[in-house]
């Protein structure tokens, strides 16, 4: 098994640009060896994380509109 990488990267849910940058960040950034299997595994793991970032941004956006 390869090295497990952890990134402290967490986009500010109030900053649409930060969320978009995170969403469009290619999975290869988190797979330093560039192995195709590794990149695919990272993409699979990151999909729900990226969806959660969008959900948090949307909730923050809705909260700002209500206030």
Write a compact overview of the structure shown.
This protein has 2 helices and no strands.
Q: Output mean pLDDT.
A: 84
User: Could you say which overall geometry the principal axes of the C-alpha atoms support?
Assistant: elongated
Strand content: under 5%
- Structural class designation: mainly alpha
The residue fraction in helices comes out at: 55-70%
End-to-end C-alpha gap:
49 Å
Put simply, the count of helices is 2
Count of DSSP E strands?
Answer: 0
What count of structural domains? 1
SSE order and pairing:
Blueprint: H1 16-23, H2 36-66
3D structure, described in words:
By secondary structure, the chain is mainly alpha-helical. The protein has one domain (16-66). Helices cover 58% and strands 0% of the residues. The chain is built from two helices and no strands. Mean pLDDT is 84; it is low at 1-5.
Name the features.
2 helices; 67 residues; mainly alpha; 58% helix; disordered N terminus
